[in-house]
Amino acid sequence: MEAKTNPMRLLDRLGIPYQVHDYGDTGVIAGMDVASVLKEDPDEACKTLVTVGKSGRLHVFVVPVSRELDLKKAAASVEEKSVEMLPSKELLSKTGYVHGGCSPLCLKRDATVVLDSVPASHERIYVSAGKVGLQIELRTEDLIRAASMKVADISR
């Protein structure tokens, strides 16, 4: 494996154990495809979705690859009138990540981070390691602590 990513360095600093899963340069970035390649439970494998609220604030939602983000529930969870997906062209400048490699850890800008209640009920979780082709597996409670996440019902 190449050098560690910022999310890995953060977990190391916090003393949180994790396992890296490398699915390489396969061209696969769709969540369900990644979960299939890595033989992960689609309710534990998560995608990180970045939104902007009516207020202009960034909000990051972590939902299972098997489900979709419910924008109304998401907005309510962060006390916004509405949220909309951040345009892909703004992802790198606002988060420090590219599409398919966005992690809920070590975001470039402050953002509220919310974990869906479905993966929150599982013991382990898989999220992007901050680079396309790499995922981190760790205990869900450790991710919640490391990312200062709140948990809410935000998917359908």
Task: Kindly list the characteristics that best describe this protein.
single chain; 156 residues; alpha/beta; 5-stranded mixed β-sheet; 3-stranded antiparallel β-sheet; 8 strands
Distance between the termini: 35 Å
**For the largest beta sheet, what order do the strands appear in spatially?**
4-2-3-5-8
What value does the average pLDDT take? 90
**Bulk shape:** globular
Description:
The chain is an alpha/beta fold and 156 residues long. Helices cover 27% and strands 26% of the residues. The strands form two sheets. A five-stranded mixed beta sheet has the order 4-2-3-5-8. A hairpin with a 5-residue loop joins strand 6 and strand 7. The termini are far apart. The model has no long low-confidence stretch (mean pLDDT 90).
Brief digest:
This protein has 156 residues and is α/β, with parallel strands linked by helices. The protein is built from 6 helices and 8 strands.
What topology does this entry show?
Blueprint: H1 6-14, E1 19-22, H2 31-37, E2 46-53, E3 58-64, H3 71-77, E4 83-85, H4 88-95, E5 112-116, H5 117-120, E6 124-128, E7 134-139, H6 140-146, E8 150-152
Parallel strand pairs: 3-5, 5-8
Antiparallel strand pairs: 1-7, 2-3, 2-4, 6-7
